[in-house]
Recover the amino acids of this structure.
């Protein structure tokens, strides 16, 4: 790696001031699990890295409101989120998802804010957060704002963040009667990068689905909701006829990409099968309590 300056600001204001939006060789670094690989491979040669490790206060907390909303600081390691009692109680699908997200060494270092800002379409957490209706708080030189995770991810390794902006917090609304699952299909080991990820969150009314959020990832350029497929579920039970129609719509709606983990036709068939399985599993699961 080429030499670079490492800055370690102690406040958010200082960190934002050190990020030069006009210099592509200046980059913030959180856990650094992805950025360091890029640097070792020579893909990215920074002039300055702005470490966020010394930021405290809300950056390193997990808090639950009386109403059931979860607030997770952007610098929380994924392993801490995985083992959080609050997360397990209010959004258990996140805890389950974390167990197969890469390996424990990566989860001990990688942060939730860094993972979202990196916008790797193969990450397991973004589709789950989108299915749960999560949002992020963002701060930059122009002030603060909030946006849905769905709006944050704009393309292949691309986000809606301005060059001077940092994610400060992830907010997951109270899930109430929501039942959620995440299915990950890998071509290798269980913790490998997925060939396909499917996140489903439904609210049932008796045997029928009152609402549904279906998100596909890994086989697409970004974690993406399947709106037409969602509509095919509303007001229907998770029977064979409904799921057959739903899975066909999902497979047609998703813009599938081929890569080393499979052809587009293979991944489309995976989606057809696993989307139906995920809905069936969600309807069979219990809502958080």
């Amino acid at each position: 790696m080429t030499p670079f300056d490492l800055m370690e600001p102690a406040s958010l204001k200082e960190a934002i001031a050190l990020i030069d939006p006009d210099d592509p060789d200046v980059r913030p670094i959180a856990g650094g699990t992805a950025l360091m690989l890029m640097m070792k491979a020579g893909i990215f040669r920074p002039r300055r890295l702005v470490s966020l490790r010394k930021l405290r206060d809300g950056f390193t907390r997990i808090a639950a409101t009386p109403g059931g909303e979860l607030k997770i600081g952007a610098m929380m390691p994924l392993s801490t989120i995985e083992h959080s009692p609050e997360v397990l109680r209010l959004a258990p699908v996140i805890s389950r998802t974390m167990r197969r997200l890469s390996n424990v060494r990566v989860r001990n270092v990688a942060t939730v804010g860094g993972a979202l800002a990196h916008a790797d379409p193969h990450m397991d957490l973004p589709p789950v957060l989108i299915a749960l209706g999560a949002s992020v708080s963002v701060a930059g030189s122009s002030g603060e704002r909030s946006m849905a995770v769905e709006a944050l991810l704009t393309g292949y390794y691309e986000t809606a963040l301005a060059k001077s902006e940092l994610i400060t917090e992830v907010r997951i609304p109270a899930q109430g009667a929501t039942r959620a699952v995440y299915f990950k299909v890998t071509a290798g080991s269980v913790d490998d990068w997925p060939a396909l990820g499917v996140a489903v969150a439904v609210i049932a009314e008796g045997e029928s689905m009152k609402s549904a959020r279906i998100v596909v990832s890994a086989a697409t350029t970004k974690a993406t909701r399947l709106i037409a497929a969602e509509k095919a579920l509303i007001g229907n039970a998770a029977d064979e006829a409904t799921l057959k129609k739903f899975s066909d719509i999902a497979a047609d709606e998703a813009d599938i990409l081929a890569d080393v983990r499979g052809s587009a036709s293979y991944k489309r068939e995976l989606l057809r099968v696993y989307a139906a399985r995920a809905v069936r599993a969600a309807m069979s699961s219990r809502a958080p309590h």
